[in-house]
Amino acid sequence: MTIRGIRIxxxxxxxxxxxxxxxxxxxEVTILxxxxxxxLVRLVEIAGTETFWDALAITARTFALGSAVAILVGVPVGIxxxxxxxxxxxxxxxxxxxxxxxxxxxVPVIMAIFGFGETTIVLTVVLFAIWIVIxxxxxxxxxxxxxxxxxxxxxxxxxxxxxxxxxxQSALPEILTGIxxxxxxxxxxxxxxxxxxxxVGFGHLFEIYSSNFLMEHMWALLVVLFxxxxxxxxxxxxxxxxxxxxxxxxx
Length: 251
Fold this sequence. Notes:
Helices cover 79% and strands 2% of the residues. With 251 residues, the protein is mainly alpha-helical. The longest helix has 34 residues, at 50-83. The model has no long low-confidence stretch (mean pLDDT 84).
C-alpha cells in the first residue's frame, strides 16, 4: 500500500489496530476488552505454565493431523475431479454443498459418534479444510494443457509419473493456494472443535477462563492463535509466490 508515493508496510495496519486496542482498553469502554499491554503481560505469565504448553501441544497435534489428512486426501481427489469428468460430476455437487454449508452444525454429530476426544477435533479440522483444497486442485488440473498430458502419454510415462510430474507440478500454484486457504480454515476448525469439546487443548483453557471471567487470559490465548494463523499465512504465501513459475509450464 502506498500513500502519496510513500510505501506503507502491511505491519503498519497491525500497529494501528494494536494502538486502538490499547486505547479502548484503557478507556474502560467495556470490561470485556482489557488493554493490550495487560493482555501481553498475562500472555507471558501463562506461557510459563505447563498447562499452557500441554494445551498448545494438543492443539498443534490435532491441527497437524487434520491438515495432513485434508491435504493427502484433498489433492488427489481434486486432481481426479479435474482429470475425470465422471468423478467430477459425482463429487462436485457434494463438494460445493459442504464448502457453503454451516459446518459448525455438523460438529455435534461428529462428537456424538466419536466422543469427546482428539478424534473429534481432528475430524473437525478435516471437515473445515478439505473442500477448498479439493476445489483448488481441481481448478489447477483443469488448466493443464491437454497437449502436455498427451506428450507424457506418447513418451510412455506411467500413471504415477503423470500424476507427480504433470498434474501435481503443473497445478502446484493452485494446489498451494488451496492448501494455504485450507490451513487457515483448519485453524478455525481446530478452535471450534476444541470449544465444543471443551475438555482438551485451548478449548479447555477457554472454558476455564470464561467461567471465571478472566478476560485478559482469554485475549492472551486469542493473541497466540491469531499470531499462529498470521505466521502460517505469511509462510505459505511466500512459498506460493516462489512456485508461480510452474503455472507457465502447463501451457
